[in-house]
Design goal:
4 helices; alpha+beta; 18% strand
Amino acid sequence: MEFSESQIRDTLELKDRINQQIEKHKEEIESLEKNLSVLDLILKQSSFIKASLLDTKTSSEKSQSPIPITKTSDGSIIANAYVTPEQVSIVLEEGIGLESETPPFKSFFVERIIGEMKKKDNAEAENGKLQTDSVIDCIINTNGSKIREIIIKNYRQKERIDEIINTASWSFSKMIDNLNG
């Protein structure tokens, strides 16, 4: 099969256009990859909670994306944490019947973790560095004797969110183990 000179010229032009498009798209891909690298760096430097969740919610709104609190042994969801700028609400899953008297909830989570945060806040309030109404507070809502929801108000620091969620996960896992053990 023989091609005319004009067909060969058209084919070469088409090849050049395709190569130009490939180069253009390679540059776009490189630019997108650089942007992804920057975003990855930003995400690595921040907490696993998106800043947008902390900044855009009102105190009465719960975050749209709950943070699952899982059992350490099998990864099953025990509760979900909802973070707003003013509070962290931990809502236990239906069917999780934990009582506030079951160890180590009161001794570890409430007294040691939240209690230590409260001591630090009270000391800052006494020194005038913090208003007394900004001191961390923990409210435990129950349904009968079963914990339904834990609300931690005035957590103030992103690091505290991580500590609260991690220790809640550990405490709830141990409580379940104690009930089943």
